[in-house]
Amino acid sequence: MATMTLPQTSQMIVTLESGAVVSDIRKALKLIRGIASVRMATIGDDRTITPAMQRNINKARKEYAKGETISCTSPEEMKKYFDSL
User: Fold this and answer.
1) Distance between first and last Cα of the chain
2) Which of 40, 43, 63, 79 could form a cystine bridge with 68, CB 3.0-4.6 A?
3) Which residues contact 63 (CB under 8 A, 6 or more apart)?
4) In a 10 Å sphere around its CB, with 0-12 CB exposed, 13-18 middle and 19+ buried, how is residue 18 labelled?
5) pLDDT in tens, 51-80
């Protein structure tokens, strides 16, 4: 039986304060070379965090603690970062 090796990938989790910019951010991400997919995840109205969501949150926190993430503190800083790619 043949085995398949999957390429190592990275994930970025972006939390938006407002849903107003979701479509713009999604379009911008799709324009960046190297982006494999853009998916949406939302917390329901009851604000329940599923076990799968908690695993992703924990993974993101570990990556952040190791310095494996990019952090932007403003939309302008994020735009500057994307423009530099």
Assistant:
1) 40
2) 63
3) 69
4) exposed
5) 888 998 899 899 888 988 888 888 888 888
